């Protein structure tokens, strides 16, 4: 029975759980070096605040990781989450050829999750994702402890204009 299952807590990964600051420079080049940017994801440091929030939300919620990382990084991403002590949870990633803005891609997945059971909260650093989710009626915790896409035009452009992370 669906009523027996806890609500979802949905967490972004980059700049919410992982520190992307050491690899964002790959996106400042022309052309952007996406292969190096994504190759470095497995070496990201943990954002302590993100781990604390994930751990706290795991009590009473089913954790779902919703990332703009491409599907080809699944193995490294799942390993990173496990190796760094994050709670178990489903991982939803961007299809390798999906270039929709993060807000569009993530709202689509949130709506699919909501059809299964309630989504209690979304935790994300991207201001546009947060605003779109709030407008759609989701409860949002803005992850302002990581790399701030609003003040980092390179990452913001990648997330919103190029649909790459």
UniProtKB/TrEMBL annotation:
InterPro entries hit by this protein: HAD-like_sf (IPR036412), HAD_PNKP (IPR056782), HAD_sf (IPR023214)
Coiled-coil parts of chain: none
Record Pfam families: HAD_PNKP
Species of the source: Kribbella lupini
Protein name (record): Polynucleotide kinase PNKP phosphatase domain-containing protein
Gene3D superfamilies from the UniProt entry: HAD superfamily/HAD-like
Superkingdom field: Bacteria
Polynucleotide kinase PNKP phosphatase domain sequence ranges: 9-144
